[in-house]
Amino acid sequence: MIDDIVDEDGTLKEIVPHMVKDRTFGRYVDIFLSNGVNLPDWIIQKAERQPEVNFYDLGCGFGCSAEDFFQVLERRLITKRKDPEILDRITYTGIDYFIKSFTVIDDPRISFIASTDLRRLAKAKIKPIDIGVMVFVFPYLDKKLEALAGAYKHLRTGDEEYEGGTLMVTDFRTRQLKASADRNFGDAQWLGPLSPYSVIQGDRSVLKFHKDVLRLDSGYASVVPLPYLNFQDEETRWYRTGPKGLYAGQKISVYLAAH
Ligand SMILES: C[S@@+](CC[C@H](N)C(=O)[O-])C[C@H]1O[C@@H](n2cnc3c(N)ncnc32)[C@H](O)[C@@H]1O
Description:
With 259 residues, this protein is α/β, with parallel strands linked by helices. The chain has helices spanning 2-5, 25-34, 39-49, 65-79, 144-154, and strands at 53-58, 90-95, 110-113, 131-134, 166-169, 177-180, 192-193, 200-202, 207-210, 213-217, 221-223, 228-233, 237-239, 242-244, 251-256. It has a single domain (11-175, 199-227), classed as 3-Layer(aba) Sandwich (Rossmann fold), CATH 3.40.50.150. Helices cover 20% and strands 24% of the residues. The longest helix is centred in the N-terminal third of the chain and has 15 residues, at 65-79. The model is unreliable at 1-6 and 12-18 (pLDDT under 50). S-adenosylmethionine is lined by residues 17-19, 22-23, 59-61, 96-99, 117-119, 135-137, 140-141.
């Protein structure tokens, strides 16, 4: 694998935009639990309260999370002595841009959408998002705020029948967003921090955090990205054995500071 991306002399051919094997849904559940979020219970409770729940894995990779998605939920329902029939109200949709072929699963509740760029998600035609997750995707996006704004636009709007939708983004760190007062910031390493709250217009309580999980709830707000300037690579040193550095291969998005 590493020979595909690193030349003989150890220099990098390209940054790998995806992993060779993605996480299963069971692994997602562990990640969310370690951040204090019980994902299966959240999905199940929504399915008990509304006619349909559209779950989205945004940046799903090959879609391995679809392989055990319904099994994990079914096990949880059985443990809680609840009727597994409500699973038929739930759909799973995986979206990725770089991966073109997904794991094959013969289940009408599961589908994938290829060639869809999360940075331009606002323009995509998709069913409303009840629960959307981005697992280990945010660090790799250059236009992080555009992806947040795009997903927010598709969150289901609450009404008498449905609750509003929620987006949950793992691996959020404040260092991933920076602001420059100058359009031509060049290679300057010093840039001001940028709070994700700066893009929320209206009710700011739609944005909250569960440790490293950024959560956006549908509500009386709009998410308006600042003008995008460029990205910086997180510090990475590349060796024959692979990338080294705490945030190797990840990106920092730089936006024009609001005046
Ligand atoms: C590190 S992988 C994580 C995959 C999976 N979510 C997991 O946790 O195992 C990051 C994924 O994000 C996808 N990705 C990166 N940038 C994207 C974009 N702009 N639009 C859609 N998908 C993107 C990559 O193709 C890759 O599959």
